[in-house]
Amino acid sequence: xDISSASISNALQTSLQGLxxxxxxxxxxxENIRDSSLQSGDPSQxxxxxxxxxxxTDSLVGLVEDKNLAGANIKALQTENEVLGSIIDxxx
Length: 92
Known about the structure:
Low-confidence stretches: none
Radius of gyration: 20 Å
Number of strands: 0
Helix content: over 70%
Mean pLDDT: 84
Strand content: under 5%
Shape: rod-shaped
Order of helices and strands: HH
Number of helices: 2
């Protein structure tokens, strides 16, 4: 089996991008939940931008999805680390 350094680099980059995407999603969903709770508290202080917020349920589901995405990317990074370690052991 021939594993090039380019394929390892691409796999690493993809996992890191996925981890960044999940982090951004977690932040976005948490902010939506915060804004929804603020909006429901005092109608006189409603921001027109917050009227288009997704439901709290949708944001909670998004949080779970992004948590799972982060976990999958972390596992991929761990596997890449193990493979790279094995390749180094073989070549040394």
